[in-house]
Amino acid sequence: MPTIEEELGRRSQLYSLLMPVMSQFVPGLDKGKGMYFLFIKCETKTPGGLLARPVLTSYYKSSHFKDRPFDPYTNYTSPNETILCQDSYQSMYSQMLCGLSQNKEVLRVGAVFSSGFIRAIRFLEKHWALLCHDIRTGTLNPLITDPSVREAVTKTLKPDPELAGFIESECGKESWQGIITRLWPNTKYIDVIVTGTMSQYIPTLDYYSNGLPLVCTMYASSECYFGVNLNPLCKPSEVSYTLIPTMCYYEFLPVHRNNGLSNSIAMPKSLNEKEQQELVDLVDVKLGQEYELVVTTYAGLYRYRVGDVLRVAGFKNNAPQFNFVCRKNVVLSIDTDKTDEVELQNAVRNAVSHLMPFDARLTEYTSYADTTTIPGHYVLYWELTQNGSTTIPPSIFEDCCLTIEESLDNVYRQNRVFDAIGPLEIKIVEIGTFDKLMDYAISLGASINQYKTPRCVKFAPIVELLNSRVVCSYFSPKCPKWTTPGLTQWTNIN
Predict the structure, then answer these.
(1) Is the dihedral angle over the CA atoms 8, 14, 19, 22 positive or is it negative?
(2) Is cis: bond before 375, omega within 30 of 0?
(3) What is the full DSSP assignment across 5-64?
(4) I want to staple 400 with a disulfide (CB 3.0 to 4.6 A). Which of 204, 238, 351, 383 is the partner?
(5) Cross-referenced InterPro entries, in alphabetical order (predicted)?
(6) Does one domain contain both 176 and 290?
(7) Number of structural domains the chain divides into
(8) What gap in Å lies between CA 494 and CA 477, rounded to an integer?
């Protein structure tokens, strides 16, 4: 997305609103620190020479973040150097070490997305013994080779055998339920996004935190930052955001529902003439109506369809407040990836070419974002028919998995390489499984004339039905290729 220097200042202003709002609901946050797991990703350049990088990387590397004046409300356990380390393992290890060594000072914990925070807890499960050794001896693991990280961490790391023993005792227990409140006993809430597709992580967060409040403080995207949550301690299902009018110019395209489906199958980023006539301004939205968000930004986007569907939940004085309903047309998402139906269909089409030599074809398929694993991963359920007698070897299905991953977009492949998403899995189901799926949908009231196989499933009984008929499963054997101009290919070192 195009951006300009002054946009970072505007986004910093929105960040500055978050803690004053939180302090109205949770007093004393200036008396301790926040343990946030924040990361950057590598940069590249466009063919024209412009710098290209994720929006949060731009912010963390800017003077607005690096040179921010001391503020007790934005005092973090992680030194800047650990956040700005491009090596994901070294960054995660050093941030976790700093958070553990200051465990009594931590009053709030979080990350940008729920998936990122859970990934940090999973990292702790794997590496707590090494971390305890560093805390006990006051030394930093030699695997951390970044000089700036080593210097920053060793300034605060002191030998603490008592704390190391305490962490070992807690992490060594059979159950990790409540591990967050056990290791960081003064934590008052978890600051992560749990709306939209991130809501699938709520049960896991509740398990690890013993039900600490889950706080969504702000609403933002790569295109622009939008607004804040003025009632941050509300239930995740009730989160609403008040848009800040100075962030951009907002317009809203009404979403018309037809049998529970939106009025659009494919979502172009530009508006046609009819849609432009339907647009309404921020002051004209109606309570309860759903809208697709359209923005014109200071950085140059004109009437750009963000892809978010919002519902007007109420008003703060005269300012409308919005629930985030969903991303339009997205069927699968684990982290920052957003795979739509067309992209998934094209990827599957590329993969099934591996089956042709065996005279086999794909009869039907659906997908599922499985977040019971850490990290979460895509699961595809395939029903096959085979006319040939030659058995299809496992390596062919593994090739299918990898081909699908290679066919997905750059964001998905980058997340795979950086271990934010696990290997894609194909589950082969018994013949007749999708007939059973249709029968089940009809038993719930679906019309047999209008029934279509869903390309993504989320309803637990349907997932259970599919899993009960799995005959074998296969995983992608390696990470898909992910390259950026001017850089060698990245591989997952974890």
Answers:
(1) negative
(2) yes
(3) HHHHHHHHHHHHHHHHHHHHHSTTGGGSEEEEE------EE-TTS-EE--HHHHHHTSHH
(4) 351
(5) GH3 (IPR004993), GH3_C (IPR055378), GH3_M (IPR055377)
(6) no
(7) 3
(8) 14
- For 177, the token pair is 């339920």
> Which residues, other chains included, contact 296 with Cβ-Cβ below 8 Å and sequence gap of 6+?
248, 249, 251, 302, 303, 304
Statement to judge: residues 417 and 372 lie in one domain: yes
Residue 489 predicted with pLDDT over 70: no
Q: At 428, which amino acid appears?
A: I
* Higher-confidence position of 387 and 261: 387
Q: How far apart are CA 270 and CA 200, in angstroms?
A: 30
- Long-range contact pairs involving 338-346 (C-beta distance under 8 Å, separation at least 24): 338/307, 338/411, 339/378, 339/408, 339/409, 339/412, 340/267, 341/455, 341/456, 342/266, 343/407, 343/408, 343/409, 344/455, 344/456, 345/455, 346/407
Q: At what angle do helices 460-468 and 433-443 cross, to 10 degrees?
A: 150
In a shared domain, residues 18 and 123? yes
| Domain containing residue 106 | 5-219
| C-alpha torsion 178→184→190→192, nearest 10 | -100
C-alpha 343/C-alpha 339 separation (Å) is: 6
Mean pLDDT of the 101-120 span? 89
482 assigned to some structural domain? no
Q: Are residues 467 and 394 in the same domain?
A: yes
**Given the structure tokens 């029934």, which residue do they identify?**
451
**Whether 411 and 471 share a structural domain:** yes
* Cα→Cα distances 305→72, 82, 227, 275, 379, Å: 38, 35, 17, 11, 29
pTM for the model: 0.73
* Coil, strand or helix at 4: coil
**3-class SS of residue 477:** coil
Assess contact for 233 and 211: CB atoms under 8 A.
no
| DSSP code, position 96 | H
Q: CB count, 10 Å around CB of 191? A: 23
Name the domain boundary from 160, 191, 219: 219
